Amino acid sequence: MDNERGHRRRAGGERRVEVLRVAASVLAERGYDRTRFSDVASAAGVAVSTLQFYFGSRDDMLVAALHHSTEEEVRVMERCAAQEDGPWERLLRLLERGLASQPEQTWRMLLEFWYAAVRDPELRAHSADLQRRYRRPFVEAVHEGVRTGRFTTDQDPEDLVTVVLALLDGLVVPRLCAHDYVREAQVRVIAVDAVAGLLGVDRSTT
Amino acid sequence: MDNERGHRRRAGGERRVEVLRVAASVLAERGYDRTRFSDVASAAGVAVSTLQFYFGSRDDMLVAALHHSTEEEVRVMERCAAQEDGPWERLLRLLERGLASQPEQTWRMLLEFWYAAVRDPELRAHSADLQRRYRRPFVEAVHEGVRTGRFTTDQDPEDLVTVVLALLDGLVVPRLCAHDYVREAQVRVIAVDAVAGLLGVDRSTT
Amino acid sequence: MDNERGHRRRAGGERRVEVLRVAASVLAERGYDRTRFSDVASAAGVAVSTLQFYFGSRDDMLVAALHHSTEEEVRVMERCAAQEDGPWERLLRLLERGLASQPEQTWRMLLEFWYAAVRDPELRAHSADLQRRYRRPFVEAVHEGVRTGRFTTDQDPEDLVTVVLALLDGLVVPRLCAHDYVREAQVRVIAVDAVAGLLGVDRSTT
Amino acid sequence: MDNERGHRRRAGGERRVEVLRVAASVLAERGYDRTRFSDVASAAGVAVSTLQFYFGSRDDMLVAALHHSTEEEVRVMERCAAQEDGPWERLLRLLERGLASQPEQTWRMLLEFWYAAVRDPELRAHSADLQRRYRRPFVEAVHEGVRTGRFTTDQDPEDLVTVVLALLDGLVVPRLCAHDYVREAQVRVIAVDAVAGLLGVDRSTT
DNA sequence: CATGAATGAGACTTCATTCAT
DNA sequence: CATGAATGAAGTCTCATTCAT
User: Fold this and answer.
1) Most buried among A126, A139, B202, D119, by the most CB within 10 A?
2) In terms of CATH architecture, what is A2-205?
3) Which residue of B has its CA nearest to A158?
4) pLDDT digits (tens, 9 = 90+) for B137-158
5) Tens-digit pLDDT profile for residues D60-112
6) C-alpha–C-alpha distance, residues B173 and A124, integer Å
7) Residues 65-124 of C with CB under 8 A from D
8) Strand F close residues, chain C 38-57, CB < 7 angstroms
9) How many beta carbons lie within 10 A of that of residue C146, not counting itself?
């Protein structure tokens, strides 16, 4: 009866999942603290009390929405790393995905999740869990590259990935703020360069 | 009579500044949307109506607090770059400052500011302005390094700095969430390596 | 199809009676206004909609529970008076029963009934009816005692019983509140003394 | 800043006491669980939010009202016993007051208080306290009567008073339910008789 | 200059109830 | 016979805000 990481799924039928998706998009749009039941209700075309029937409290609803969204994003990353070619090729795909233009909602949701996790211990725990899964494909690619001699860095792969991901995450806010100085194309090239340099990748063959 | 970027400074003398500082710390602690007049009032030991007397509305108070804090942070950076030694040395100082351990409040405030700016056009404008000033010392150092041949990159300095700052900013959230995988010492080394590699810095003399 | 004083018995077979008993105990525990469908439902292990199927509305359920309980209590009293020995002996049995330690639920239910009856006309009518039946054994005993010369009072038996029952009822609240000054043993003796004195009972033979 | 037995008096000026009185009368009228903020607000001619400004929560308001009312009633009793004539005369005055016709509100409030106290530990504690003060004049009169030989009972005065008060309290509900069998005049005579008999009062001189 | 009193708007939440199966 | 899904009505509570002093 419990699912989604300990949150009791209260009730509801098929529509519950649909509504959850709507809730996520409203959340991305308005932000956690400004997402009211009535916002989601009118966006989803259901009654406010239906939302409570589905999720319990407002907080539970929003947390469920956060979980749902982030879960999906992690799965995308895992799929990106599924194809078994060279480690740099895989890493490149992961980077591209991280750097690619995305529906703004994805980034908003990410920021939302960070913001909430900083203060909510339960979300923070979940966040740590997600991070681990999110990092894994990166870490494995680096490990493999080092092992096979494709990468020549001396640093610890975990730490390297921490910096690589920081680089990706650090671009989220500037893009959301539509800072005009973020020139997508150039930034992507430089970011990939930075990673390649950091790992000591031999890119001659690419 | 107007100051702080168009916000009417309502009233109040010395105490107002004290209270502003308190407001900032409460804001960092609780987050924008959860900082009520009464929170700041009790933290500062004044009446709610006094806060309104000082700042006007709740939003005005919070925005003033955000401005106040971020302004201070930018000034620190500008001071870091004041000393006129080599461009890499200056950049290193800026990086160190950006990477250094700080009172958590600083980072919380930064995240707070990002989060607010994403949705508030007025804050976003202010944010752009701040970013420009924040970036300038970095950009100038890179320019000088390239001009003097100390750095050998072909990329545009502005874009390079965008990536460098993304790297710094991207570390804020993991640290606030106390993710255990962030190993401060190693990460700093790698981050500096990454920047040095990116710029093609000749570090043999350092 | 109608029973229990005009309340339509909606539906349900044997389980309905079980559930009614559960409802009564929940009612005694929580009080009229705080007994929700869901309380009874979870206590009885049935769905809320089942309760509605059985009883109709919430009020109907609670009234049925009150009727059920009080009905049982009156029957006990009538049984107490069934044995045909002397009037004082009978009265004594009735008093003992009224004064005896009882499961708290009995007294709670009584108070619940009083409290509800004060404001609900329909319950008040039912209450008057119950009172009449509850009083009858007392009144008849007094009548007989007077007629046979065993009691020597000049007062009207009805009025005497009113006072006697007030005495019993007045002990309910102190006991429910567990006021420590209520010393059961002594109080019973004194209460019986008071009644005996009031009726002018010749207790020499008892 | 705390008063009325530990309940924080939140705020408010002179009108607060007026409103408290209104709240009490609404409470007597409608009963605890059915007294909403809006009922008191409209009866008192203030806004709902004013009530919360005064009392905090709905519960706090009602508890304050209960305290206020019961406090007043106890004071009346204490005043009844102030005059220093004979113990029986004093006791008679107390009984008369207890038996006298009163504005229905008084009795309703009493029942309200009992009902609430049975389930609320805090109110129960307060109730015990009130009882002690309420009983004292009775107990002292009995003591004096026994000491001076005016009363000839062998029983413990405390226990006697418990029974006497039960008798008074037990009349509250029948009267509130307007049971036609309660004949005020006769009942008063009998009740006084009962007490006199219980105490062994020599009434020849009265 | 600073405050307390009073209020209105708006949100969450509880809960009985309706309906389809 | 019994239940789960969905909803509307109603109440409490929070909080910014206005106003008088």
Assistant:
1) A126
2) Orthogonal Bundle (1.10)
3) B181
4) 999 999 999 999 999 999 999 9
5) 999 999 998 888 888 888 888 888 889 999 999 999 988 887 888 889 999 99
6) 11
7) 108, 111, 114-115, 117-119, 124
8) 46-50, 52-54
9) 20
